[in-house]
Amino acid sequence: MPLENEPSNCGQCTTLNCSKLNSTYPTFCLTEATTDQEYDEIIRTYKEDPLTATIAVVSAEVAAKGIGKLNRAQEIAEFAKGLGAKKVGIASCVGLVKEAKAFIRYLDSQGIKSYSVLCKVGAIDKSVINVPKSKESHESICNPLLQAHILAKEKTDLNVIIGLCVGHDALFIKYSQAPTTYLIVKDRVNAHNPAAGLAALEKGL
After folding, report:
1. For a disulfide at 85, which of 51, 75, 157, 170, Cβ 3.0-4.6 Å?
2. How many CB atoms lie within 10 A of CB 192?
3. Which of 193, 131, 129, 138 is nearest to 163 (CA)?
C-alpha cells in the first residue's frame, strides 16, 4: 500500500509498464491494485455487451490503421463504417459551422449520412435559465440538451462534437443517447489544439 503523500495514480507513473510489459510496476500501480473480480467484470462487459464489444474492436482496428496516416476526420469516418452506423449526428458550435459543413461534405463523400444540430438551436434567451447576459438584446443559450434530444429523435448511431464549449460538451455527452466522440475540441487561443496550450503552460511552471 502507498504511504501517506506517496504517489497513488497514473499521473505520477514513470515506468509505463502497463503499455508494453517491458519494465516494472511502481508500488502504487493501479494495474496491480485492481482486483481479479474487477478485471473479470470489466472483461465480461467487453465480451458480452454487444455495443461495447463492437466499439472496443473497431476502435482498436482504426487506431492500428490510422496511426500517422489518417487525420481525425478520416478516423471518425472509418470508425463509423466499422460500427455500421447508418446516421452520424453532429453537435456543432455555431462558431464552427464552416468546419461542420466541411465535415458533412466529407462524410457524404464516404457514403455516410449525417444530421447536424448547432448549439444555438431553440433560440432560448439566456435569461430564461438565469444565465447572466452581456447585453440588453436577445442572447441565445448554447443548448446541448436540445442538441442531444434532437439527435436522439433522429436515431443517430454515433454522435460527433465539433467545438462545443467546455461544460456544454459535458452536458451533451451526459444526455447523448448514442456513443459520442470529438472531431474538434474548442481552444480559441491555440487554433483548437489544446496540446499546444499545455506545452505553453508547462514552460511557465
Report:
1. 157
2. 16
3. 193
Instruction: Output the CA–CA distances (angstroms, integers) from residue 76 to 32, 88, 118, 161, in the order listed.
Output: 33, 10, 19, 11
pTM of the model: 0.91
**CA–CA distance, 96 with 103 (Å, rounded to integer):** 11
Q: Do 81 and 14 belong to one domain? A: no
- Could you tell me if 9 and 77 lie in one domain? no
Statement to judge: residues 107 and 159 lie in one domain: yes
Residue 199 confidence (pLDDT): 87
Q: What is the 3-state secondary structure (H, E, C) of 31-73?
A: HHHCCHHHHHHHHHHHHHCHHHHHHHHHHHHHHHHHCCCCCHH
How far apart are alpha carbons 53 and 40 in whole angstroms? 15
Instruction: Give me the sheet containing 87-92, strands edge to edge.
Output: 113-118, 87-92, 158-162, 180-184
Number of domains, the chain: 2
Please report whether residue 65 resides in a domain.
no
- The residue range of the domain holding 28 is 1-33
Which phi and psi (to 5°) does residue 140 adopt?
-75, 140
* Residue stretches of the chain with pLDDT short of 50: none
Specify the amino acid at residue 82: G
Q: Is residue 12 part of a domain?
A: yes
Same-domain pairing of 9 and 89:
no
